[in-house]
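Q: I'm writing up a methods section and want to include an example of the input and output format. Could you take the sequence below and give the corresponding predicted C-alpha cells, formatted cleanly so I can copy it straight into the document?
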Amino acid sequence: MNLASLWKLPLVLVCENNGFAEFTPRSAHTNVERVSDAVAPYEVERATVDGADVAAIRDAFAGFLAEARGGSGPFLLECLTHRLRGHYEGDHRRTPEAPDRDPIVRLDPEGAFDTAPVAAEIERAVEFARASPFPERFDDLVYA
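A: Here is the clean output for your methods example:
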C-alpha cells in the first residue's frame, strides 16, 4: 500500500476480509476492525462493502476502475465476508452454515443460473495455466 500510494499507481486493490488471520479472529490481534481504516495514513480512496452483495461490489469496483483507468489511484475495496469453508483445503474446521452470507445464494436464491458454462471456462483457464511455460526471470529489469 505504501508504494502504491507513494507512486500514485492507477490500481484497485481488493481485500476479502473474513475477520480472521488464518485461525485467529482479527479482534485478537488488532484494535482496527476494518482494513480500510488501517490504510488511512496512506491517504488512498477506499470503501468497505458487504462481500456477499454482488451488486454493491460491482458498483464500488466500477467506480474505482473508471478512476484508475483515468490515471488516478490507488484505491482499496474491502469486502466484508463470511468464511464458508475452512482456511485451507483439508481444513475441517468450518464456520456455521450461513446461506444468507453466501453471495451466490443471495444473487440466485432459486438456483436458476446455469453454472456449466462458467465451470467449463474455469476448467479451460486451469488447463491453459498448467500447459503454459514458466515466465522468464526478471533479474535484468531496471525500475525507474
